[in-house]
Structure prediction request, 344 residues.
Amino acid sequence: MSLPKPRPVCLRRLELGALQFLLAGSAVASLDPAAVSGAAEYSARHRGVSFLAIQGGRTLLEQNAKTPHRIYSGTKAFWDLAALAAAEDGLLNLDERVAGAITTWRSDPRKAQVTIRQLLDFDSGLEPEFFLHETQSGDRDATSVRARMVAEPGRAFIYGPAAIQVFHQVLKEKLRGDSPTHYLERHVLHRLALGSQRYLTDRAGNPLLATGWILSAKQWAKLGQLVLANGAPAPVVSRNSLAQCWRGTAANRAFSLGWWNNRAAPNGREFDFEQMLIPKWQNQDWRDACLCRDAPSDLVACIGSQGQRLYVIPSLQLIVVRQGNGGSFSDAHFLRLLLGRERR
Prediction:
């Protein structure tokens, strides 16, 4: 699917912007209009369907940004925000043992050691159980709770729906009768001016936490705005709570609480994160991983299958949403084009 030509008003707005603008007390260099346009063109050539770049609150360029599109694993970050909000509300502690809420885990020596944070960071040791993505699942929560442990807690990054689905059962127990979905909507979505979502509920009424949402680029960008505002303006969570999303784990320093980071740049191992997730977890290597060696190290991203991306670079006050339908999209190449750092 080809994208429409960038609207002249968007480019004109970018071109007429000052080379630098004042924000939060510091001067931030504006992106080169030609670089932004080049990144959008690259995205379109690789089956991109929407593009949105916002810097310092100013829209630099948008293409098809109001059309809803699947964000796949971008869904996870919203549920992780609900977890952070629940921690601030005193409903739970991310470092408490899951077995405190799910009593059947107490009899398993390894499950008894798993923390809520490890569920959300995908280093709990629980098997992934990708079949939970199926829309006709009976009771995803119960199935996930019964999943096998295949690694010691904290030792391996195992990306899949089971661990985060167990968190849904934990939150259900903590809320004592209230619905996790209602909690998410009140404490996260409404504060982001978003409504209820496509939850892909199973036969027991449990939503699928790993994927499923459909958002336009403009809607998804609201999450990026929250990052730049350090959890505000609603607020959804505090600055300190949100900062937990950027620190990574011993099992994968490039991932925490639904967000991927570029902390290993400029000296890290640059590779395609989506491609690395395809082999079985035992064959994945996340050592010193970074999305792009030439992008700022404070870059963070939500990554969804088939090329869905939300990038946020706080040092540039930049939010970029790119949505697509598969294809050979490269984060590193896209980011170099966007930032005017493409190697010749």
Residues 298 and 313 are 6 Å apart (CA to CA).
